[in-house]
Every structure is written in structure tokens, then in C-alpha cells.
Design goal:
Blueprint: H1 3-13, E1 22-23, E2 30-32, E3 37-41, H2 54-67, H3 75-79, H4 82-94, E4 99-103, H5 106-117, E5 123-127, H6 132-141, E6 144-148, H7 153-163, E7 169-174, H8 186-195, E8 199-203, H9 218-222, E9 230-234, E10 244-248, H10 250-259, H11 261-264, H12 271-286, H13 290-307, E11 318-324, H14 326-338, E12 341-342, E13 345-346, E14 356-361, H15 368-382
Parallel strand pairs: 3-12, 5-6, 5-7, 7-8, 8-9
Antiparallel strand pairs: 1-2, 2-3, 4-10, 9-10, 11-14, 13-14
Helix pairs in contact: 2-12, 4-12, 5-6, 13-15
Bound molecules: pyridoxal-5'-phosphate (PLP).
Length: 388
Amino acid sequence: MDPLTWLAQRRAQGTLRRLRPLERPVAGGLYDVAGRQPLVDFSSNDYLALSCHPRVIATGRRFLEEYGAGSGAARLMSGDLTLHHRLEEEIACFKAQEAALLFGSGYMANTGLIPALVGRHDVVFSDRLNHASIVDGCRLSAARFVRFRHNDMDHLAALLADKRGKGRALIVVESLYSMDGDRAPLPELVRLKEEHDCLLLVDEAHATGIFGATGAGLVEEAGVTRQVDLVMGTFGKALGSYGAYVAADQVWIDYLLNRARSFIYSTALPPAVIGASLGALAVVRNNPGLGQELLARAHFFKEALAAHNIGVESASQIVPLLIGDSATALALAARLNEAGFFVTAVRPPTVPANTARLRFTVTLHHSDADLGRLADVLQELQSGHHPS
Ligand SMILES: Cc1ncc(COP(=O)(O)O)c(C=O)c1O
């Protein structure tokens, strides 16, 4: 199909993606460039508002000035700077793992590390709702790709019994699902991985910085740090910066730096980004209550929705409102936009067919007044009234 017809079809289905430039000054606020309209952002993963934290900015700036704008090369060439090792040591310590390895982004981490872990004679078991970067990593690996129903441990057990095979087997899940805001049953996953002699890789992209006594994530909260083989996460969400990591036993890190192609063949993260990530980790270490504060705010929002009879299911700061039809979700997002809220309608193929939704993310940028007002406007919109 030619691209024009393809685009027209997508437009007709209400699933055409487009870019929308915004202004987001550190001083506060989010602005629609076209209308200069101030918006409250309910779409960002900057959960702890660390992207604007003075310490994060200051460390990023200092590293930029001391070390320059770029790393100049891949880590295995001359791009391997001591500051990369500092961040790896910090993140390994934060995650209570022996060692860690940085990647350019979470997408690059998953598409690099999964094919390094499993190959042609192996099998990978992946939750049906896993992020696209995991799906792409599984596909790239050439391993047998087996998907189990979302969080359905009976289904996984049956598939393991049937398809485990004799090669290496990997189970891969997210600890907190990005589009649904629900959690993986980590203790059951550990039990199954032990019973069937599999590796377990947990993507903590949306949990890091928020859950667990030190903010390390849901693996920490579930008390299964030693049982999970590899934990990955990104600096681009609660940690307010950019880039990603995998943390595991030293032997896995040595192996991955020899085998993960997205690590080997890509320029090392730039100094300012490393500085910002180190700054963010220091803020989280010094303020272990930030995650709880965020979850309390998310709870306040869900209570406000419940008071308006708006039903949502969420065990976290990610609050999806299921709409179903893409066009309706888009129209609702546009109306919310007019009322001063930035929220994206998440549509297929990002989510399964007929499950288009508005995905609200609560962050520490929000005040109780923002959260209450959004719940009020949603109620007015859902009952067919125009918000004033
Ligand atoms: C679960 C999950 N894993 C990985 C990624 C990719 O991370 P990054 O944005 O750093 O590429 C994302 C989000 O984008 C995600 O939601």
C-alpha cells in the first residue's frame, strides 16, 4: 500500500499519530505553542518532577561544563568515561545488584539485552501487555516467542510445561504496566521461573524511584531482589533524565557488554545526561518518601474520580480511563485540552483493539487543586455538559 493511502486509512480509523510541539519552561507550566494556552500535563512520566529539580539541573550543567557536550564514541571505543562507571556503580547499589550497564535508552536496552540473552535455540515467555521495546527485543532475538495472557500465571505455567524446551528460557515482564497501571505478580513469577529453570528479566521503567523502601522499585517492595536475574529501567521517567540501565550479577554485565549490539554499536550517553541522572539518584536517596508522596496524590485523584462515579482500575500513579473507541477517546482528549489539560488518547496498536483510553499520569508537578479540577471536568464531559 502506498503511504498516502495508508495515512488516509489511519486518519479514517482515528489512529493516525501526529506530533504536537509544546513549550515546557523550567519555571513551570506547559504551553501549547499554537494557542499559547497553559496546560496541566497529565501525560508525562516525570513522576517525581525531577526533570526540573535544581540539583538535577545543577549536576547536569556541571558535567556539561567539565566534560563537554558529547562522549565522542561508543563505550568500547574511547567513549568510556569514569562518569559512566560512577553512574553504573550508583545504580547497581540503588538496585542492590552486583553491577549495572548503561544503555542509550530503555528501548535500546530491551532491544539489545533480550537478543543477547536468548537466541535461535531458546524460548522467551513474554506478558501480552509488555511494552513495544520488549516485543521488538523478543522478535529480534530469533528465539521462540511465546506470549502469555496478561498477568495470568496459570496460563504461563501451562505454556512453560508445554513449550519450555531444552535451551535457555527467559521470562520477561514489566513490574508496573505502562498503559494499565497494574502490577506483575512477582512472587509467583519467581516461583515459576525457579520451577522451570528460566531466567527472569523485569522491566522497572515505571516503578523505579516510586515503590519500595528506598524507591528501588516493585522488585524491592516484593522482596525478590535476589531471585530476579536481571532488572532493567530507564532514567527518562521518574528519574527525570534520559538513558537506561540493566542491573544484575557481574557475570551477566560482562556478558552483555560483549553481546548486546545496542550497547556495543552506539555512542555513549553524554556527560550532562549522566550528571542529571546522578543528581536524580542523589535526590531519591536523600528523600525516600517521594514515592509515597506521589502515590498519596494518585490516591487523592482516584478518590475524586470515585466520588464522581468515574470508575478506574489502577494500583499506581498511572490511571487509565478506558474509553474503547479511538475516535471517542480522541474527542475526549481534545475537549480536555480545551479545558486546560494535556492528556493523550492512547489507541491501538499501542493498546489492544477496542481498548483506546485516556492515560492519566499523576506527578509531583500536580497540586490537589489540579487533580480535583480534572476530576470535575471529566465528570462534566462524561455527563455531556461542557465545562465552563
Ligand atoms: C515498560 C517500558 N520499557 C521501556 C521503555 C522505553 O524506555 P525509554 O523511553 O527510555 O526508551 C518504556 C517507555 O518508553 C516503557 O514504558
